[in-house]
């Protein structure tokens, strides 16, 4: 271990400034040489490695940006197509809505007209039925009044007439009926 320390700090063993000598002690010179070589590589190689890494990174970033731009353009195109389809669908929906409303209104008018016609027919049928029922009631009342009048008249005649008067009235009526028959023939 003393040799390693001596090689770093041994001032007494150093030759004069103008000469150059090689140290052949491998254990003492190897770590020094490695540290010098690594230091030179790091100092001068840092720029080369950094530029390689920087170029590679720059290329990746640029390709990512190009890909993003292409994706953005594609997304914009798809958005425009979707907007055009949306406008088309909205126009069709408005047409359907307008046509639907006009068809609904037409159906409503048709239904109202059909209902009015049905109501008129029902009203006419009701009026005809009422008129028929009134005529039937009037005829029934007439028949009842006529029957009652005939019954009263017969009752009065039967009470007032005797057989002879009765016979004469029948003969006169038969004569009147006979003369009416001759006129009609």
From TrEMBL:
Task: Kindly report the protein's main subcellular placement as a broad class.
Answer: membrane
Q: In what way does this protein cross or attach to the membrane?
A: Single-pass membrane protein
What InterPro entries does its record include? ATP_synth_b/b'su_bac/chlpt
User: What single Pfam family name could you report for this chain, choosing any that match?
Assistant: ATP-synt_B
Superkingdom: Eukaryota
Q: Which UniProt keywords apply?
A: ATP synthesis, CF(0), Chloroplast, Coiled coil, Hydrogen ion transport, Ion transport, Membrane, Plastid, Thylakoid, Transmembrane, Transmembrane helix, Transport
Task: Write the signal peptide boundaries.
Answer: none
Q: Where in the cell is it found?
A: Membrane; Plastid, Chloroplast thylakoid membrane
Q: Which residues form a coiled coil?
A: 65-99
Q: Keyword check for Hydrolase, yes or no.
A: no
Cellular-component GO terms for this entry: chloroplast thylakoid membrane; proton-transporting ATP synthase complex
List the molecular function annotations (GO) for this entry: proton-transporting ATP synthase activity, rotational mechanism
Q: Where are the transmembrane segments?
A: 32-54
Family as reported in the entry's similarity comment = Belongs to the ATPase B chain family.
Additional notes on this entry? In plastids the F-type ATPase is also known as CF(1)CF(0).
Subunit and interaction comment: F-type ATPases have 2 components, F(1) - the catalytic core - and F(0) - the membrane proton channel. F(1) has five subunits: alpha(3), beta(3), gamma(1), delta(1), epsilon(1). F(0) has four main subunits: a(1), b(1), b'(1) and c(10-14). The alpha and beta chains form an alternating ring which encloses part of the gamma chain. F(1) is attached to F(0) by a central stalk formed by the gamma and epsilon chains, while a peripheral stalk is formed by the delta, b and b' chains.
Q: What does this protein do?
A: Component of the F(0) channel, it forms part of the peripheral stalk, linking F(1) to F(0).
Its protein name is: ATP synthase subunit b, chloroplastic
Q: Which organism is it from?
A: Goodyera seikomontana
Write the gene name.
Answer: atpF
């Amino acid at each position: 271990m003393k040799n390693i320390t001596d090689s770093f700090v041994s001032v007494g063993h150093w030759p004069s400034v103008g000469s150059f000598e090689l140290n052949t002690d491998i254990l003492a010179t190897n770590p020094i040489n490695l540290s010098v070589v690594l230091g030179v590589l790091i100092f001068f190689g840092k720029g080369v490695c950094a530029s390689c890494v920087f170029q590679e990174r720059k290329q990746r970033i640029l390709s990512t940006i190009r890909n993003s731009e292409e994706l953005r353009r594609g997304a914009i195109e798809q958005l425009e197509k979707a907007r055009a389809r949306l406008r088309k669908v909205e126009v069709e929906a408005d047409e359907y809505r307008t046509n639907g409303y006009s068809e609904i209104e037409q159906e409503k008018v048709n239904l109202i007209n059909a209902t009015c016609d049905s109501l008129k027919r029902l009203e006419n049928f009701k009026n005809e039925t009422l008129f028929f029922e009134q005529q039937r009631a009037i005829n029934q009342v007439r028949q009842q009044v006529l029957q009652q009048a005939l019954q009263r008249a017969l009752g009065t005649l039967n009470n007032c007439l005797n057989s002879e008067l009765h016979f004469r009235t029948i003969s006169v009526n038969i004569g009147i009926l006979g003369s009416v028959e001759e006129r009609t023939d």
